[in-house]
Specification:
Strand order of the largest sheet: 6-5-4-3-2-1-18-19-20
Distance between the termini: 33 Å
Helix content: 10-25%
CATH topology: Metallo-beta-lactamase, Chain A
Largest sheet: 9 strands, mixed
Order of helices and strands: HEEEHEHHEHEEEEEEEHEEHEHEEEEE
Oligomer: single chain
Length: 338
């Protein structure tokens, strides 16, 4: 058993079980619309839950209300974990507001702020987050750690600018896309520190790297592919060109991808091109239609919010242990099973 599992399990020994429910033997995922931020709610069949990031603060508690609604729809009254992928404003600054409505048992993040970049601004983003934790458990994740959600294996692939050193079981073959172009993406910033995760539920596999930059994608995926392939890819960085290099996306070979972009944030044309050229990709789903790349958007049925002024519709994923999964657009209830 890995160290993080021992720490967290000991911490849970005195906790009172919380009433949450999963009606079927499925993993339920809700990708919440935070207008170009990130927030994802997860519920396992065993009733354990996790929130990954919490979108933007303010705006009349807009994102808090959306996250709470998603959690309530899954009958979640307390999160087993709140995970912060990195410390940018649209990921960490609203954690305290959500925690005030639906509290967490354990907080997961990548640890202290690193020097360089904008440490003062990042530290300000974290002020309310650190204050809200109080005496509760906070755990620093490292590449190779596993988050002990019962029945769901969650492996940390990247964190704090580092990547896993050993390939996962069954992976490690040379990456045939390792020679993909490596464009200049500008200066490294907080996004380089992102926690990237691989979720495994039965035969299903999903990769989510938050806003990880191409520099770290290259470090992870060259010369060999230590991850293998996945069924579902959460498009990185809201679909921004600074992430989503073909050597990552194409090597993962997802069947479907979900882009958590805003109408005017992310959704860059080059990312659409990369995704559509990915071997085996059947469909791209979007939280918003991209205004800047409007001629490259997915078909309307696959877009949760086609207008900039929207009703904040989510995209949900219901996963079965045999590896099949159903993605649903909550705007029109269009769904497709893979």
């Amino acid at each position: 058993m890995k160290l993080i599992q021992k720490i967290l399990l000991v911490g849970f020994a005195t906790l009172v079980p919380v009433a949450v429910g999963s009606a079927a033997d499925t993993l339920e995922i809700t990708v919440v619309d935070t207008e170009g931020g990130k927030a994802m709610v997860m519920l396992t069949p065993d009733g354990q839950s996790m929130l990954v990031d919490a979108g933007f603060p303010g705006n009349n508690d807009r994102d808090t209300k959306r996250i709470v609604a998603a959690a309530e729809a899954l009958k979640i009254t307390q999160f087993d974990y709140m995970l912060v992928t990195h410390y940018d404003f649209d990921h960490v600054a609203n954690i305290a507001s959500v925690d005030a409505k639906i509290p967490a048992k354990v907080f997961l993040d990548r640890g202290p702020v690193q020097p360089g970049g904008n440490p003062g601004g990042i530290q300000r983003n974290m002020t309310t987050y650190l204050k809200c934790i109080g005496e509760r458990k906070r755990v620093t994740l490292k590449p190779g750690d596993e988050i002990p959600l019962k029945g769901l294996k969650v492996t940390v692939l990247t964190a704090g600018g580092e990547v896993i050193k050993k390939p996962l079981p069954g992976a490690g073959k040379p990456n045939e896309f390792a020679n993909a172009p490596k464009p200049d993406i500008g200066q490294q910033d907080e996004n380089a520190q992102c926690i990237g995760l691989l979720y495994e539920f039965g035969k299903f596999r999903m990769a989510d790297f938050a806003d990880l930059l191409q520099t770290q994608e290259i470090a992870l995926m060259t010369p060999d592919n230590p991850v293998g392939t996945v069924d579902l890819f959460m498009v990185s960085h809201h679909g921004a060109f600074r992430s989503n290099n073909p050597l990552l996306v194409h090597a993962l070979r997802p069947k479907a991808a979900i882009m958590n972009n805003g109408a005017r944030k992310g959704g860059d044309a080059i990312t659409f091109d990369t995704l559509k050229a990915s071997p085996g990709l059947q469909d791209l789903w979007q939280l918003h239609a991209s205004i800047s790349a409007k001629d490259k958007n997915a078909p309307a049925d696959f877009i949760a919010n086609p207008e900039e002024k929207c009703e904040a519709k989510a995209i949900t994923v219901s996963v079965r242990r045999d590896g099949t999964f159903t993605v649903t657009n909550m705007r029109n209830h269009f769904s497709k099973t893979y």
